[in-house]
Amino acid sequence: MSLFIAVPAFTAWARLSAIPSAYYPFLALLTIGLVNEVVSIVLIKIHGNNITGYNIYALWLAACTLWQFYQWKQTVVFRILLILLVLVWLTEWYCKGSLEQYFSWFIIIRSALICIISIYIAGYRIKLVNYILYRDAVFLICTAFIIYFSYALLTELYQVWNFSIKESWHYYIAGIMSAINFLVNCIYLFAVLCIPPRICLSPH
């Protein structure tokens, strides 16, 4: 079901000529997400897990997301946050000494940070937009971010603190994540279709 990200990704590429450059980071996010899903399938078949690929993808996902935030609200804060996240990622890599362990603390910090920023931007759009919100690409993308990264944060906290939960709950957690991935990708698809076309100024 996670490969469903191919639908919004290919739709975005099909609309590339009409999409404003301010949304290019979102297009990159979709593309990297699709590549990650394909690479994950290959790594699992070859090595039995995709931990290394996921750790690298987690950093790229954070970079694309903050880059997108920067396009919407150009402030040096997002550049500083990106540098800090890279430092957190490198620190966890150094402490664990390998890419073959999940970078849980990076994922927790990244997810919490993106959730907070997404809530702020979505709230700002609610006050700013003077038409139906479900057609506003920025609001839709932020909503998808809030859903995805909130659940990623909760599941990673569960892994770090190793809560005593029945084994059967692991399957429920994985199943919920699959459903959330599908929902988020549906929102991504609708957001791609709602991105306003690029304005081309006539030379005459």
Task: Supply database-style keywords.
membrane, mainly alpha, transmembrane helix, 204 residues
Task: Explain how this protein is built.
The chain crosses the membrane at residues 24-44, 76-95, 102-126, 138-158, 170-193. Keywords: Membrane, Transmembrane, Transmembrane helix. With 204 residues, the chain is an all-alpha fold. The chain has 7 helices and no strands. The chain starts with 5 loop residues before the first helix and ends in a 10-residue tail after the last helix. It is globular, with a radius of gyration of 18 Å. It has one domain (2-194).
Element layout with pairings:
Elements: H1 6-14, H2 24-47, H3 51-72, H4 76-96, H5 104-128, H6 137-161, H7 167-194
Helix pairs in contact: 1-2, 1-7, 2-3, 3-4, 3-5, 4-5, 5-6, 6-7
Task: Briefly say what this structure is.
The chain crosses the membrane at residues 24-44, 76-95, 102-126, 138-158, 170-193. With 204 residues, the chain is mainly α.
Tell me roughly what share of residues is in helical segments.
Answer: over 70%
How many distinct folded domains? 1
Uncertain segments of ≥5 residues (pLDDT<50)? none
Radius of gyration: 18 Å
Shape: globular
Tell me the β content: under 5%
Would you report the number of β strands?
0
Helices and strands, in order, run as HHHHHHH
Figure out the total of helices: 7
Return the average pLDDT rounded to an integer.
90
Tell me about the largest β-sheet: none
Distance between the termini: 49 Å
Derived structural class:
mainly alpha
Transmembrane segments: 24-44, 76-95, 102-126, 138-158, 170-193
Keywords: Membrane, Transmembrane, Transmembrane helix
